[in-house]
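Bumping my old thread because nobody answered last time. Still need a sequence for this structure:
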């Protein structure tokens, strides 16, 4: 009987864990949902504000919001931020698609709420601008992005850009703190395991 118990105990101890990332059951699906919801909200907000901008703003007619520091100023941007790469629209489209593929790949090992939020923001921002690239004039893959938020007269962006910049800052903070996309650092998990007498 003890022999059977030992064998049974061995089998149980060798069985693969059914817990998700970070040792919590079902955590990864929940994080993927969070990533998807954040991305969807960014896309909706981005496209809705672009539609409003096209309906109520005219190019070359800025409207002050916070003095002359922040203005609503409609332009159609063929390039990236700061209007760079205006003659490389196809290249920018390809890069954006590559970013989407990279995010999907990283999401397969997602185990951190902060990383899910960051990836959701950058995914939503990338999709928001890609919609413009594919469906706006002058043509598929070469469409101009609708920008309308003028910052200090230095550059003009949109909601998708805000999401991407916010994600970049969050990713930088997470990287500096050593937080991997899979969750808490392995060293911390090991310390908690050693402290647990069970």
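Sorry it took so long. Here it is:
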């Amino acid at each position: 009987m003890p022999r059977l118990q030992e064998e049974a105990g061995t089998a149980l101890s060798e069985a693969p864990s059914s817990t998700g990332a970070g040792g919590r059951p079902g955590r990864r699906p929940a994080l993927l949902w969070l990533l998807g919801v954040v991305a969807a909200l960014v896309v909706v907000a981005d496209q809705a504000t672009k539609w409003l901008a096209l309906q109520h703003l005219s190019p070359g007619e800025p409207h002050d919001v916070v003095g002359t520091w922040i203005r609503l100023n409609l332009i159609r941007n063929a390039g990236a931020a700061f209007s760079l790469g205006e003659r490389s629209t196809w290249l920018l489209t390809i890069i954006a698609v590559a970013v989407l593929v990279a995010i999907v790949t990283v999401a397969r090992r997602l185990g951190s709420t902060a990383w899910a939020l960051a990836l959701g923001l950058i995914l939503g921002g990338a999709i928001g601008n890609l919609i413009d690239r594919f469906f706006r004039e002058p043509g598929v893959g070469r469409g101009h992005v609708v920008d309308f938020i003028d910052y200090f007269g230095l550059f003009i962006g949109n909601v998708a850009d805000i999401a991407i910049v916010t994600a970049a800052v969050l990713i930088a903070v997470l990287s500096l703190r050593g937080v991997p996309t899979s969750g808490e650092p392995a060293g911390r998990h090991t310390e908690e395991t050693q402290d647990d007498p069970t």
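Residues 71 and 98 are 32 Å apart (CA to CA). Let me know if any region looks off to you.
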